[in-house]
Amino acid sequence: NIPVDFLRDHHILGETRTIKVQNVEGREWPVRLLRRGDRGGLESGWSNFVYDNNLEEGDVCAFELINNKKKVLILK
């Protein structure tokens, strides 16, 4: 989940949209971002990102919005 304050502060709150999530190697995945109550959720493409980056339960992804581009740092 993504806190709604983050979405609001970066003007990405509102309708469902597709964003690009990029890992540290620069590879990108389209992921659907939607609002769920007071949080944002990632779906439709997120499972591909998880699989391709060998993420497991307990791993941490740090998201940062840079120049309106979503970047992801994966910590294992």
UniProtKB/TrEMBL annotation:
The keyword S-adenosyl-L-methionine does not apply. Pfam families: B3. InterPro entries: B3_DNA-bd, DNA-bd_pseudobarrel_sf, REM16-like. Residues 1-76 form the TF-B3 domain. It comes from the Eukaryota. Signal peptide: none annotated. The keyword Transcription regulation applies. This is TF-B3 domain-containing protein. It comes from Nymphaea colorata (pocket water lily).
